[in-house]
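Propose amino acids for all 475 sites.
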């Protein structure tokens, strides 16, 4: 039976409740060795389950903001650890009920992988990222168990389209059956051509547009069923950077009013002086001087407008930052500045980012993991370096083949043409294919299988966490 993570970068078998005692702490102060938990489906009532499931390490989170592992209060001896083990287990069980705790695979508890350092051929013209995320990440409290900040389960968004007054309604499938998770201090890149559903997915995650099916869990709370009143405090913790900075800023408001609007809505400042100080601090994080505050958007350049949009999102101190193609309206030099700015902010503030772009170089530069979307579905997902190197799905391979490459030859006739499988028309989202959504354009499509049966995300190489939805992956 399929679970909620069949379309995600997770293990198909989900862990049961963790009932083993906490690991012993090394008296020398070293990190405790991971204990093993069994992965098995919950047994049916009245039946005895055979304990033949594989053993997996019980992992520990990576970078968690505001951790206090080095404080005296968090240091425990072996005796203290044993005396508080039962209390810790009871507290964790009360916080995470059995039905919710059993849905997260062990992979979700592992630390965010380091940012990719090796760029695939043809993408070498990107500047190196700022800093080293693993070394800059704060330590984790001993015995701490961290859940993903964002979990999306089988999310779908369908727009009704009416054909005249008496015509039958049709439906546009913008996003269909998308599942993924996002750890704290991690960046998940989402790539795909225009019209693949990337921006609609971002808006549905933040409930700027209401999802049709599925649910979104933010910090283990289901926000898809919340009222607007209950959702308002959570909106402060998740912000968005829009694609067009000129359209995203109110032309009648100054920079001070634009950045300080969120502070006023969420009542984060006691008076106007404190609000001005917070606005100035937010602008300084993005590299803008205080002299920018009395200006209007038309007095700023494109890069400065995008920095104002980033400052507006950072002013309310979010935990999740959704970047909806923040580089598409900027020139190349400004794109590099904004990318390095986002990397520095994530390193310094511990932000979780959902980075949406059609630029493969930008995604390879900023993301820990990447998901490739086509016609509203995720067709490939995995660590950025693995996806960029192996490219199992034909659509992923075609996207990389379409990236222009610089040649040393000055003769235009000697330049190699771009060979790609993207020349065929994209199938209609109103009448999507019954089987694989890429079958009409795939050179390896098998008639009677690819056009009839829907592939699911499957881990091609066991243990690689690299999944592809294809009946004939190019291994």
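Proposal:
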């Amino acid at each position: 039976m399929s679970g909620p993570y069949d379309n995600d970068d997770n293990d198909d078998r989900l862990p049961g409740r963790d009932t083993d005692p906490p690991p012993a702490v090394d008296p020398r102060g070293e990190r405790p060795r991971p204990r093993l938990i069994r992965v098995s489906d919950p047994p049916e009532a009245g039946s005895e389950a055979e304990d033949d499931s594989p053993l997996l390490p019980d992992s520990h989170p990576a970078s968690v903001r505001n951790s206090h592992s080095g404080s005296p209060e968090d240091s425990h001896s072996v005796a203290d650890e044993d005396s508080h083990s039962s209390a810790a287990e009871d507290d964790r069980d009360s916080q995470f009920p059995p039905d919710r705790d059993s849905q997260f695979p062990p992979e979700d508890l592992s630390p965010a992988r380091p940012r990719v350092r090796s760029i695939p051929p043809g993408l070498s013209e990107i500047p190196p990222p700022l800093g080293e995320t693993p070394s800059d990440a704060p330590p984790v409290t001993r015995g701490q168990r961290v859940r993903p900040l964002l979990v999306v389960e089988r999310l779908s968004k369908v727009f009704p389209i009416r054909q005249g007054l008496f015509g039958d309604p049709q439906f546009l499938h913008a996003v269909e059956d998308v599942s993924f998770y996002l750890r704290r201090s991690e960046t998940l890149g989402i790539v795909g051509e225009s019209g693949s559903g990337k921006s609609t997915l971002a808006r549905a995650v933040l409930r700027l547009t209401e999802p049709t099916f599925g649910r979104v869990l933010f910090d283990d709370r289901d926000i898809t069923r919340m009222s607007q009143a209950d959702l308002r405090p959570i909106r402060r913790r998740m912000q968005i950077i829009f694609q067009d900075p000129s359209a995203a800023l109110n032309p009648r408001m100054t920079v001070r009013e634009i950045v300080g609007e969120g502070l006023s809505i969420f009542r984060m400042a006691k008076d106007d002086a404190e609000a001005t100080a917070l606005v100035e601090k937010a602008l300084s994080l993005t590299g803008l001087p205080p002299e920018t505050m009395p200006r209007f958007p038309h007095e700023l350049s494109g890069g400065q407008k995008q920095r104002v949009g980033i400052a507006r999102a950072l002013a309310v101190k979010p935990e999740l930052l959704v970047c909806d193609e923040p580089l598409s309206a900027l020139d190349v030099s400004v794109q590099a500045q904004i990318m390095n700015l986002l990397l520095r902010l994530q390193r310094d503030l511990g932000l979780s980012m959902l980075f949406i772009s059609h630029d493969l170089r930008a995604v390879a530069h900023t993301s820990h993991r990447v998901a490739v979307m086509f016609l509203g579905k995720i067709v490939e997902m995995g660590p950025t370096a693995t996806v960029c190197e192996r490219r199992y799905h034909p659509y992923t391979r075609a996207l990389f083949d379409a990236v222009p490459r610089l040649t040393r030859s000055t003769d235009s006739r000697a330049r190699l043409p771009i060979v790609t499988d993207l020349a065929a028309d994209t199938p209609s989202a109103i009448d999507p294919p019954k089987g694989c959504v890429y079958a009409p354009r795939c050179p390896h499509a098998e008639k009677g299988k690819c056009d009839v049966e829907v592939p699911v995300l499957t881990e091609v190489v066991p243990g690689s966490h690299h999944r592809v939805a294809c009946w004939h992956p190019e291994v």
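The radius of gyration is 24 Å. Residues 20 and 288 are 52 Å apart (CA to CA).
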